[in-house]
Amino acid sequence: MRAAVLHEIGQDKLEVFDDVEAVGFGPGKVRIRVRATGLCHSDLSAMNGVLPQPAPFVPGHEGAGEITEVGDGVSHLKPGDRVVVCWLPACGVCPACKRGQTELCLAGFMNAGAPNFKRPGKDVFGFAGTGTFTEEVVVDAGCAVPIPDDVPFDIAALIGCGVTTGLGAALNTADLEAGSSVAVIGCGGVGISAIQGARLKGAAEIVAVDPVASRREAALRFGATKAVSPDELAGLKQSVTGGEGFDYVFEVVGKSATARTAYETTRRGGTLVVVGAGAMDDFLQLNMFELFFDEKRILPSMYGGGDVLRSYERTVALWRAGRIDLEGLITHRVPLAEINEALDQMRTGTALRTCIEI
Questions:
Q1: How confident is the model at residue 107 (pLDDT cuts 50, 70, 90)?
Q2: Strands, DSSP E only, in 57-167?
Q3: How far apart are CA 94 and CA 262, in angstroms?
Q4: Does the global pTM surpass 0.85?
Q5: What is the pLDDT, as a whole number, of residue 239?
Q6: Cβ count near 315 (within 10 Å)
Q7: Neighbours of 123 (CB within 10 A)
Q8: How many percent of the chain have pLDDT more than 90?
Q9: pLDDT tens digits, residue range 281-337?
Q10: Distance between CA atoms of residues 158 and 172, nearest Å
Q11: How far apart are CA 244 and CA 249, in angstroms?
């Protein structure tokens, strides 16, 4: 079968092979024919080494498709079922799951160290224990979440990561108050989803911050009240909040520099929500006096900060009701053979989300 493979961490191009085999099928596993997958910035971060990932590997973790085979012991799924790939399944029995913090379950990460694929003479891993830039993948049954028949595969793929992460940051992690002021720094697919979440919660002001003009324009269509480049943010903080700062600021870039800007843009007593996934050696510096004196809440948001399955269901319900726009997030479509074009679209910021059709 075909799959896009990164040979070594640090390379910027993927190579599409037709001699890749999905491995590991057995009890408790399912085989999925991938129909659509989104390109998430985390895929790029894994490719360049910001996020730890053994290589060679098949990127992709935001996918949807249909079950073709189920292993022994799998009773809730059958061939033909439409599913979204969940890269962070909850085991239900670990301390985090028992506390109701299923997004902190580490069971899914345990799969990342085992190869999901092989090519002649070598093992190939799947990013985040999945790897959806391929025609077929074998995963634990918990990674395959059934979706209703009326949800297209491309929409389902977005729900698998970016939309759940961004919406959840606003609805779950921040749980922001109606009438509040909000700034979102970084307006790709995840940032736009956070903007939609802030709009749903009734934010009065939603300021989108991004260096790419097309993304700023898109943010306005999705609910932002203003959109500015990063060098305009300080002036807007003054004009919108009287210099006090915003009630809620979402950092959706994953860099200490933007997190520091986000902290300084948050009002005293306000909330900074860290959504972007950054590098382990990139440190955010805060002094002990400002932490105490400003009383700003710093809330990391892992995968939307809530129960993943409930978040999926909520997203589908909001989409059906026309309360959120998911189709509009897909600005580009490419076949798997042109995956490197999708990478360029992500790097240059020309795409909110590119759908890879498989």
A1: confident
A2: 57-58, 62-70, 82-85, 117-119, 122-126, 136-140, 144-146
A3: 33
A4: yes
A5: 94
A6: 25
A7: 14
A8: 95
A9: 999 999 999 999 999 999 999 999 989 999 999 999 999 999 999 999 999 999 999
A10: 18
A11: 13
User: Which residues have a Cβ under 8 Å from the Cβ of 270 and sit 6 or more positions away?
Assistant: 245, 246, 247, 248, 249, 296, 297
The CA distance from 230 to 242, in Å, is 18
Element (H, E) at 314: helix 308-320
Single-letter amino acid code for the residue at 250: F
Query: Which residue type occupies 7?
Result: H
pLDDT band at 110 (very low <50, low <70, confident <90, very high): confident
Q: How many CB atoms lie within 10 A of CB 303?
A: 22
Q: What's the rounded Cα separation, in Å, for the pair 165 and 128? A: 15
In this structure, the strands spanning 117-119 and 82-85 are: unpaired
Identify the three-state secondary structure at position 177: coil
Taking alpha carbons only, the member of 341, 340, 338, 333 closest to residue 357 is 333
Q: In whole angstroms, what is the distance from residue 224 CA to residue 316 CA? A: 22
In this prediction, residue 220 has a pLDDT band, given cuts at 50, 70 and 90, of very high
Give the residues across from 310 on adjacent strands. none
pLDDT at 159: 97
- Say how far apart CA 105 and CA 202 lie, in whole Å: 31
174-216 confidence digits (pLDDT tens): 999 999 999 999 999 999 999 999 999 999 999 999 999 999 9
Instruction: State the pairing for strand pair 266-274/297-300.
Output: parallel
Task: Please count the CA atoms within 13 angstroms of the CA of 313 that sit on its side-chain side.
Answer: 5
Burial of 76 (0-12, 13-18, 19+ CB in 10 A): exposed
Cis ω for the linkage preceding 211 (within 30 of 0): no
